[in-house]
Specification:
This is 3-oxo-5-alpha-steroid 4-dehydrogenase C-terminal domain-containing protein. GO terms for molecular function: 3-oxo-5-alpha-steroid 4-dehydrogenase activity. This protein is mainly α. It contains nine helices and two strands, in the order ααβααβααααα. It has one domain. Helix content is 65%, strand content 1%. A two-stranded antiparallel ribbon has the order 1-2.
Length: 285
């Protein structure tokens, strides 16, 4: 049963239309260059339209993998597909694994989360719904649905394995970079609690992360997420166009935030404190 007729799950015509226009999302994401704040985290603003961080994060990240799972459970039946190749199932599992961590575990692992502006929350939901539909449609019916079709697209076990390796390398690197930021927050919360017990005035303290990949760059968690989805695209092959769009959309959405964050670090700590560190792309920027 369709939740939204022709769209959830998407008909082939609607999916092809979405897949075409989805590759132009970077033009929309580039509008971030025109504003001086990002509606969550260090550069956010006080607003009555902010949503509590954990609630906003979960509700804006969950729709992506729920959409993909729903599409996989309904679209093949509509298209007369009785079983999908193992490659489709593995790629779907990787998508879900990423978002189980990102959408569910991540907000509860965080010692604290900044409020998120309702506009950022709404745009994130739209992103997740469209991305889940694009990737899910390809995996469920509109990409290769037999081993012969995979072979016709130049499938090789070696390429798939390399893609999986890169994906998991990015996923693990992303997790440990997140964990380093979490440990800094935990330390700050312990410091604040100690000051409260002593009856002292508490001022928020910031520091430049120094462990792991933070020795070399300011935003390794962004970079490793790009690595992750690069591996995903490699595993699926050049014809996996929704994965390519996802990677590019992530890059163009996150890169302006990294640039803004890099300026924040420089203003907050001075150039000496971040000297020798790249902002987000090792060896480039």
């Amino acid at each position: 049963m369709a939740v939204v007729e022709g769209w959830l799950p998407a008909s082939r015509d609607n999916w092809e239309t979405l897949n075409f226009w989805w590759q132009f999302y970077p033009a929309l994401a580039s509008f971030q260059w025109l504003v001086s704040w990002y509606g969550m985290g260090k550069t956010s603003v006080q607003s009555k339209f902010n949503i509590p961080g954990r609630i906003a994060w979960i509700t804006m990240e969950v729709p992506g993998f729920i959409t993909l799972l729903y599409t996989l459970s309904t679209l093949p039946v509509q298209q007369g597909i009785t079983d999908l190749p193992w490659q489709n199932k593995v790629l779907a599992s990787l998508f879900v694994i990423h978002y189980i961590y990102r959408a569910i575990f991540f907000p509860f692992l965080q010692p604290s989360m900044s409020p998120i502006h309702v506009l950022v929350w709404a745009m994130a939901i739209v992103f997740q719904l469209l991305n889940g539909t694009a990737v899910g449609g390809w995996l469920a019916a509109y990409g290769p649905t037999t081993q012969a079709e995979w072979d016709a697209q130049g499938f090789s076990i070696a390429r798939f394995a390399i893609g999986l390796g890169i994906f998991y390398f990015g996923l693990i690197g992303n997790y440990f970079s997140d964990e380093e930021l979490r440990e800094i927050r935990r330390s700050e919360m312990r410091r604040q609690e100690k000051f409260r017990q002593q009856g002292k005035t508490i001022e928020k303290h910031y520091e430049v992360p120094q462990n792991g990949l933070f020795k070399y760059m300011l935003f390794p968690h962004y970079f490793m997420e790009w690595v992750e989805w690069t591996g995903y695209w490699i595993a699926g092959g050049v014809a996996f166009t929704p994965a390519r769009s996802f990677l590019l959309n992530e890059f163009f959405a996150m890169f302006p935030r990294a640039v803004s964050g890099g300026k924040w670090y420089k203003e907050k700590f001075g150039e000496e404190k971040i000297k020798g560190k790249y902002v987000v792309i090792p060896g480039v920027y």
